[in-house]
Amino acid sequence: xxxxxxxxxxxxxxxxxxxxxxxxxxxxxxxxxxxxxxxxxxxxxxxxxxxxxxxxxxxxxxxxxxxxxxxxxxxxxxxxxxxxxxxxxxxxxxxxxxxxxxxxxxxxxxxxxxxxxxxxxxxxxxxxxxxxxxxxxxxxxxxxxxxxxxxxxxxxxxxxxxxxxxxxxxxxxxxxxxxxxxxxxxxxxxxxxxxxxxxxxxxxxxxxxxxxxxxxxxxxxxxxxxxxxxxxxxxxxxxxxxxxxxxxxxxxxxxxxxxxxxxxxxxxxxxxxxxxxxxxxxxxxxxxxxxxxxxxxxxxxxxxxxxxxxxxxxxxxxxxxxxxxxxxxxxxx
Length: 333
Prior knowledge:
single chain, 333 residues, alpha/beta, 434 Repressor (Amino-terminal Domain), Rossmann fold, 3 domains, six-stranded parallel sheet, 47% helix, 16% strand, globular
């Protein structure tokens, strides 16, 4: 069975260096950490969580709080779950996933009973009812998503305003003057999904600065309403030359809708969107898009959370936005 000594020998460092890299108790250079990570992967070394928990009074478990809503499109959320669980595993932590509708009670339950060393919060809303319980907990937390009040919270999110401006600028620079914007469903706005109006409002503001006409619509999240909605929107604005889709279910359905309509992209209509690369590969999406970076967000949130676990007095709270990146896949002209 592979042990810590085998990893140290493979890397050419001491056992204590490997131990520090795993625990985070002392700073290790990035190059050394990467070599240790590579050796762990090559050798198949697994941290003995029970022994480590006894030595550090830690569970080596992170709580992941989220909700699956019946009226939303699950595949997009799964991208974030995978990113967070992968990042946690790389740092030697397991994940306890909680999908309880009563999120505040769930947080109180898992933190007061010391089931977890820290909490990652997904599906964050503007006035998130789970935050008071999170603030009272002994364990640290990291949020993927922006609430209204970020005081004393570590928050990670995409710069949705920047993403909107980037996509509007892209269409404007190509000469488009009338475009359609398909947003998340109305219930996302009503529930306090700030990312939805952050993107929409920034897109409308940027379009107004350019003198573009924008027809903004709520999209749908479940079939057959998704396809009906897209067809109705496109029928209502046949003169529009471009469309921005900020709706996971709608962009997943769009290739089939356009194919059925006989619409050729980008000859007849330019299409831009924002979605994770893996999501795009899953649904064979050929569209120019902003990468929403669930991998980057999940990794940064978990890394910051582990820093708080290792060093609870590790400095002021962090609010960090990932800069949007546009990948041109030839769907605009």
